[in-house]
Amino acid sequence: MELVLDVLSWICLLGGAIFLLIGAIGVLRFPDFYTRLHAVSICDTLGAGLVLLGLMLQGGLSLVTVKLLLMFYFMVFTGPTAVHALAEAALQGRLKPLVDNREP
Amino acid sequence: MEYLIDIVLLGLLMITGFAIVRMRSLLAVAMLTSIYSLLSASLFVVLDAVDVALTEAAIGAGISTILMLATVALTTDVEKAPRHTPLLPLLVVTATGAALIYGTLDMPHYGDPAAPVHQHVAPTYLHDTPADIGVPNVVTSVLASYRGYDTLGEVTVIFTAGIGVLALLGYRTRRRNIQGPGIRKLVVLRVIAKLFFPLILLFALYVLFHGDYGPGGGFQAGVIFATGFILYALAFGLGNAQRVIPHQLLRIMAAVGVLIYAAVGIESMLLGGKFLEYRVLAKDPVTGQHLGIMLIELGVGITVAAVILIIYYGFVSRRHSGDM
Question: pLDDT of A17-31, one tens digit each?
């Protein structure tokens, strides 16, 4: 049982780390503001979420898990909201999204 | 393993420092200083100084970033190019840096348990806290009880800073509640702000009254409390935030916090003890200590929250009454 939990938690931790890495690469490589936001939002939700889930599996049934759960709840709400607010502010500031105008 | 984390964090700190120096866009610099504070906070966590980390994260990464962004919004967001050659300043900085590095050669090694700072009064505090004060968090017992005078001084400094900002920036009452067209559209932000506003205040109270047992205390709680109201003001406009907690009330609160702190000291004098000697506050010395710490932490929290909100109101009220 312990082994199964360990394996599951490691899968979650590594998965989270991979998503964080993908998000970081996306921020560096994507061409404009809106696409970069798209990359960042992965870090906040999937990346951090999976890492927290992995840590919860390590914590077992304890107060630590409850606190991690609260953090998870907090991240799930605040991350997408922050990205949404940023995108909204950019639109208000008349930042044009990069559009591919070539003929298909 | 811990060395590896230290090296990575310190390296990132250095990179951030260089980036701050090189950047010309002040908006980017404000965000980078926030990152710098967050990295420092992580470093404090590695050093097991969670109380300091909580303060650094709340003040350094949170409030100062907001205030810096407010300053940038009031002034300009591009740094002016220097008019003179940077040779002389560079020379001065290099000489000072070299002297500082030379000075560190005589200092005890990183994490050395035989360092003078660990030999002086720290063992006494660690040894006496359980019997004298009976709180698990020694940081709180040192900060609020053994070093009560110093903390009273710190709170007075914060109060004075609030008065200074008030004198410099002033506070402009606004005739009508101006709201940008953008704000009105941010439905998602408003719903989430409304959802989290009570939770942030609840967390601030938890940090305040749980400071004896875990990381936290008056300073951190005050900052978190103020952050809740700043979030509210950001989402719903300054006018609505002022209807919840008006500026006149804040000015009174800032003074009340310091007065609560000093009153606890005078009360203990009246009861036959020395200034800020909490053990006389109740029949049982340990209960007296608990009561005293609780009251002065409350005073610290009230002053810190009020002063931060005064500064924030000062900045934002100028912005809206100006050219906006």
Answer: 999 999 999 999 998
